Amino acid sequence: MDLLNALVALSNYVIVPAIAYGSQLALGALGITLIAGVLRFSNFAHGETMAFGTMIVILVTWWFKSLGISIYPLPTALLALPFGIIGCIAMVLLTDKFVYKFYRKAKSSPVVLVMASLGVTFIMNGIIRFIIGPGDQRFADGVRFLLKPKDFKIMTGLNEGLAIKLTQCITLVTAIIIVTALFWFLNKTRTGKSMRAFSDNEDLALLSGINPERVVAITWVFVAILATVAGTLYGIDKTFKPFTYFQLLLPMFAAAVVGGLGNPVGAIVGAFVVSFSEISLTYAYKKFLTYLLPSDLAPSSLVQLISTDYKFAVSFIILVLVLLFRPTGLFKGPST
Amino acid sequence: MTENPFLIGDSMSGGYGKGADILHNCTVAVNKGEIAVIVGPNGAGKSTAMKAIFGMLNMRQGAVRIDGEDITDLSPQDRVAKGMAFVPQNQNIFTSLSVEENLEMGAFLRKDDIKGTMDQVFTLFPILKEKRKQAAGELSGGQRQQVAVGRALMTQPKVLMLDEPTAGVAPIVMDELFDRIIEVARSGISILMVEQNARQALTIADKGYVLVQGENRFTDTGASLLADPEVRKSFLGG
Question: A2-325: which CATH architecture?
Fold first, then answer.
């Protein structure tokens, strides 16, 4: 019984949240890895791309609510998602046209493009704060819990409750759908294959008559879709705050680098490595150990390895370790 | 020399970027369905001449004509559309794509059914059919070259340009590869190739060009060059 209670506590506080967080990171890291593979630079503005798409989703959600449109029990944000995606696509394509294209034509080195993306980050940062403000926005509506802790306790007779939020479920399902669609596109369609070919060997792709500008544009479209979905899922699961989205850049980059920049499968695995490390290292194991250990050995402290304030240090350490010992990532990708 | 070669790089001079000229008044041509081979010592400008013909070089002087049409100002991609195909010396396959996907990418510009051409490539290189689901980067050197040539053939080119197709492959595979190249030429495709293995290449060549320091030193049929005592002494090791 105690073992079961311990496992339920662990699921409730570590496994379920880490799966949801990992799915959100995976979608974000996929966007970063696509840009790294096709456009050959690390896009520092990716957190802002997510925030921009999510911002439009929030604005449309509010508008729908004022009109009384809802899809209860699902969050209204899902209905607003396509609008956010379209807005985000327009934004990234315009950014590409006015910023990145110039450096691409000049055949600038990747670091120049990275710096340009940093500039884009600051501008987007300002625009987003100007439109929606720097504060926290809660926009998730609909049913909150799919499984309430109290119901779980009654169902199983255990002391520990297990909560599964609807948003966590939506996150996982949406992530699976999007990732499946992306992989189908990359592996089965002619355009998807040409994207992989371009990423693999740009010169040979040109010799084969693959149009680079078209590949780049399609990549941006996918990046915008992935970023908006990732941002919206993160937002309905937690809250939307521009600064938090900027901070998400680090775990997303860590995930993409762990898996090997430019490698989509790697980005997904990397995202779960990061999310599980982050959450399991910042979880207080007191309850878990109290169930498992004899009562006289029960810990009196929280048994928390590091404070949640330092959760970004986890991504950073993972990033440094991977770059030190396996710079091309766990899955072989081109080193940067 | 025939009056109207199918593809000709005529009196080409030029170099990379704004650097010094590498080619000096260099002429290379190939007739329909024939094999022309460019040989010469290291640094003679053999690969550079190929790149010049394919439009990957700034030419200061000279012209490139295919079937009488001047294509000097066309980009490499546009030359692909004109019926030229180029197999570079290095990085000539998509390593992370499967063999079949490599061939599909070769045919990217085509809108018609590519199944027939792919079957032709598989008939020419049966090993590729066997390994068509495998990532091209996992293949041996010789097999990779077959993928590279196969990819180029997928555009149904009229002229195939090969930059050292036998570099880094085992001697026994090399013979095999040369046989395949002859087979391609017999199907009516002109072949222009740069080769390090001069003696063997000239044996199969209808026309041979010996380049030295970016200039034409000797130009003749493959057989005559092989028989020429001076060429033998200087370039073929006696």
Answer: Orthogonal Bundle (1.10)
Which of 136-195 (A) contact B at CB < 8 A? Answer: 190, 193-194
Average pLDDT, rounded, for chain B: 90
8 Å CB contact of A207 and B88: yes
Average pLDDT on B34-41 reads 92
Q: How far is A102 from chain B (nearest CA, A)?
A: 20
Q: What is the pLDDT of residue B58?
A: 83
Q: Between residues 187 and 216 of chain B, which touch chain A (CB distance below 8 Å)? A: none
Domains of chain B: total: 1
A197 in reach of chain B (CB within 8 A): yes
A193:B104 CB<8 A: yes
Q: What is the pTM of this model?
A: 0.88
Which stretch, A47-56, A69-78, A157-166, B62-71, has highest mean pLDDT? A47-56
CA distance B216 to chain A (A): 27
Q: For residue A208, give the chain B residue with the closest CA.
A: B106
CB-based contact, A328 to chain B, within 8 Å:
no
In a domain, B43, yes or no: yes
ipTM score over 0.90, yes or no: no
A201 touches chain B (CB under 8 A): yes
Q: Which range of residues forms the domain containing residue B3?
A: 1-74+194-238
Per-residue pLDDT tens over the stretch B182-222: 999 999 999 999 998 888 899 999 999 999 998 999 999 98
Are the Cβ atoms of A197 and B91 closer than 8 angstroms? no
pLDDT of A336 higher than 80: no
pLDDT single digits (tens) B78-129: 898 899 999 998 899 999 999 999 999 999 988 888 999 999 999 999 999 9
CA distance A94 to chain B (A): 26
B176 located within any domain: no
Closest-approach residue (CA) in chain A for B111: A190
Is there a domain that residue B113 lies in? no
In a domain, B234, yes or no: yes
- Looking at chain A, the whole-number percentage of residues with pLDDT higher than 90 is 70
Domain CATH for B55: 3.40.50.300
- Residue % of chain B over a pLDDT of 90: 60
User: B97 and A197 in contact by Cβ < 8 A?
Assistant: yes
CB contact under 8 A, B105 and A203: no
- Considering CB atoms only, which of B80, B88, B94 is closest to A197? B94
Extents of the domains making up chain A = 2-325
User: If you average pLDDT over residues B131-145, what whole number do you get?
Assistant: 92
Yes or no: say if A12 and A150 are a contact pair by the CB < 8 Å rule: no
